[in-house]
Structure formats: structure tokens, C-alpha cells
Amino acid sequence: MNTQIIDGKLIAETIKSELKNKVLTLKEQSITPGLAVILVGENPASQVYVNNKKKACEYVGMKSFSYELPAQTSEKEVLDLVETLNNDNHVHGILVQLPLPKHMDEQKIILKIDPAKDVDGFHPQNVGALSIGLEGLVSCTPAGVIELLKRSEIEIAGKHCVVVGRSNIVGKPVSLLLLREHATVTICHSRTKNLETVLKQADIVIAAVGITKFITGSMLKPGVVVIDVGINRDENGKLCGDVDFKSCQSVASHITPVPGGVGPMTIAMLMHNCVLAATNQGGASN
């Protein structure tokens, strides 16, 4: 089969270029979108993400405010900082990099973020808005998955989409977004019986289970579209997804690679959310 590899890097660049123009328009109205990122502790993977976010802000012309705090920072100090940023007109988006140190209650800190500035889309108000079809900020990775499908001209309406994984960060929200696009959605997880039987019926598979090379080509029907959200390391320490790329590539009509598929889209959609938040809030001066 002539499989098309979906280039997430290229699509993400296109989105960021579009956002660059939107930011220029906002600046003409004296609004410069601003993203504040709070990082607590020395998690190397989180530090890489934060640096990538800073670079993306710079590229699209947004301001980035970075708060890198030691691991022993108290929960109260983080809550107070969020409150300060909620009240700062130059900050349109607030992102607390997860995971947080063990002595902090993630949910409590997410709840503190003003839903209008919750560019990660994790606040219950935004999650609730998504579930009943109201406007709100949508979490970045699921939104990125939908953009990848749309910009690759893959029809979603009427298709059977199987989501493998039920996390609050990807599995649940991406299922709601697919429903919004008129797909028929089945959610599977570690306790699903006869997973292979369900996967064989899928027109589109979204793999977000967090297990290295969990889905293989023999589990899929020919011509399926495969979107791999997983970021794992294989036995040689190489980055790979939840999908065994090699065996699935010979079956799929479209497939995303890891790296270079969904990953770049997450940051592009974060920039999109921040520009949207700035547009919605308006009025803040440069």
C-alpha cells in the first residue's frame, strides 16, 4: 500500500506562520499575546518542553514569561504566583508544566488558573464546555490530532474512530472532539476485551495508551488512518510511539511518525490557544 506519512512538523510550521499574521493584527490593536509558563523542579523533559515553548512564542511574535522555581517551592507560593498572573493584563495564557513535585496537588493548582487563561485546556470549566459543545480552550494535543486529520484532508464525519487510551489529557478530550466532528467513537483501554476485534473495525485509530509499540499492523484493517500520540523509548533508547510503525505502515493509508507527528502539533496548538485567549480578552496594552 502506498502509505502517506503525515508530516506533523510541516503542518505545525504552517499553523505557526498563520498565527504570526494573527499576532501582527493583534499588535495593531495594541495587544501582544503573552504566555506565562511555570516550571517547578528540575525535570529534564519538562525543561526541554519549556524551552520549545519559549522558541515558539518568539517565532510567532508573542511575549513569553518564564517562572522556573526550585523543587522545594511550596504549593502556596505556586498558587500565589498563579493568582498574580491571573490579574496581570499582559499575560493571556498560563501554563503550569506537569508533572509537579509530589508535595503539590495538581488539581488544586489547575483550578486556580483563570479558565480564560487556561491554555492547556485542563480546567474543569473548559473540559465541561468541550463535553457539552460550548466554546472554550481545548487541550493542545487532542486539538492537534484533529488539525492533523483535517489538514491532511481525512474525512472524520461518519467514520469509526477507535481511541486507545482514556486519560484526561488525551483519550477523553480527543474522543469528545471526534464526536463534535460527527465521528462514531469507541474508547478502548487496558481492560478492553477483544481489543483487536474493535481495532479491525476502525477507519481511524488514535493511539494514546503509553505502551511502546502496543499496536501492530496485524491488529488493523487495510487502509486505516493511524495517529500515534505515544512518546516512549524502545529497547535501544530510541524515541518511538504506541504504534509499531514498521508493521502498521504496510497496512495504513496514512500514519504519523514518532517523532515528527503529533508532538510538534501540541506546541502549535498551544500558540493557537494563547492567540485565541488574547483575542478573547482583548484590551491589554503592549
Description:
The structure is a single chain. The chain is α/β, with parallel strands linked by helices and 286 residues long. It has two domains: 30-114, Rossmann fold, CATH 3.40.50.10860; 140-263, NAD(P)-binding Rossmann-like Domain (Rossmann fold). The protein has ten helices and eleven strands. A six-stranded parallel sheet has the order 1-11-8-7-5-6. A three-stranded parallel sheet has the order 3-2-4, sandwiched between helices. β2 (34-40), α2 (44-60) and β3 (63-69) form a beta-alpha-beta unit. α1 (8-28) packs parallel to α10 (262-281), α6 packs across α7 and α6 packs across α10. The radius of gyration is 19 Å and the shape is globular. The mean pLDDT is 95.
